[in-house]
Write a structure and sequence with these properties.
Elements lengths: L2 H9 L11 H5 L9 H19 L3 H15 L22 H19 L2 H4 L1 H19 L10 H19 L10 E4 L9 H17 L3 E6 L7 H21 L7 E5 L20 E7 L1
Parallel strand pairs: 2-3
Antiparallel strand pairs: 1-4, 2-4
């Protein structure tokens, strides 16, 4: 029967009257999907594929996609198919020149899902999985009468899979970590209320960003002797280290040191009391 005739016949037959095969699509009607956002997106994608295959009279594949939709709706996340796997839909074999790409694609998809893509980008991750299964299903039937005149269907699914996979595997560059400046009164290593507030902000960022290394570098202005300022800068760094430790930052991750008056924030002549130079820099690293 020609595809045009078959489509015309199908148009006259209501879904509920289809015998033996194609009934699973009807079972998805009225389902409110549960589970994660990824499961819900899988449900919608697999229902669309089930409808597509039903529309072409491929009721076996329609059932297979509908069953995957039902599993996703119940929160039982289905895995993507494996090409040429026995006792698994689709029964047709994919050509050898496609098998390598499919195997590689599935491995990359599974790695992305294991890396949290389904949580970060649930819609794109679901598209990647549904399009992967679509690629296998369409390519497996490429020599079958139902697909022989539609090789472009397999290409659409394949290209859709690779495009979605690229989205969920693309790593955004990590944002640069901020540095914090803690300022001190003249000739003092005591923490002011303003200084403690900055240290609190630094501790929050350390916890949020997964920081593993913290440097507290003490500085002074140019008033006082070089040797005195060196000791004062170390005392300031130690004060910040102690405050960070008290806020739960592991002491072993903090390195406190002082550089005295050798690295001013604001260049001044010797003997100048410059508030911007009386500081501790908190530098963070992952």
């Amino acid at each position: 029967m020609s595809m045009k005739l078959k489509s015309a016949v199908f148009a006259l037959v209501p879904l509920a009257l289809t015998a033996c095969h194609g009934l699973e699509l009807g079972e998805t009607q009225g389902i409110t999907p549960g589970g994660s956002a990824f499961d819900k997106a899988l449900f919608a994608g697999y229902v669309d594929r089930a409808k597509h295959e039903y529309g072409y009279g491929n009721y076996t594949s329609s059932d297979a996609f509908a069953l995957k939709a039902q599993a996703a709706a119940a929160g039982n996340t289905p895995e993507p198919w494996t090409a040429n796997s026995p006792n698994q839909h689709p029964p047709g074999l994919v050509p050898d020149d496609e098998l390598g790409a499919m195997t590689d694609g599935r491995a990359k998809l599974m790695a992305a899902l294991a890396d949290g893509a389904a949580t970060r980008l649930p819609a794109d991750a679901a598209t990647a999985q549904v399009m992967y299964d679509c690629w296998i299903e369409e390519q497996s039937y490429i020599d079958d009468w139902a697909e022989a005149s539609q090789p472009d269907h397999a290409a659409v699914c394949r290209d859709g899979f690779w495009a979605a996979l690229e989205k969920i595997t693309k790593k955004e560059p990590m944002a640069a970590l901020p540095n914090f400046l803690v300022f001190f009164d003249w000739d003092s290593s005591a923490l002011t209320p303003a200084a403690r507030e900055v240290i609190q902000q630094a501790a929050q960022e350390i916890r949020r960003s997964g920081v593993t290394s913290v440097m507290a570098i003490g500085h002074t202005d140019t008033s006082g002797s070089t040797s005195y300022n060196q000791g004062l800068s170390v005392n300031r760094a130690n004060a910040v280290e102690g405050a960070l430790s008290g806020l739960g930052v592991p002491a072993g991750s903090i390195k406190a040191s002082g550089v005295g008056e050798s690295d001013p924030l604001v260049a001044t002549p010797d003997g100048v009391r410059e508030p911007q130079n009386r500081r501790v820099e908190i530098r963070l690293a992952r």
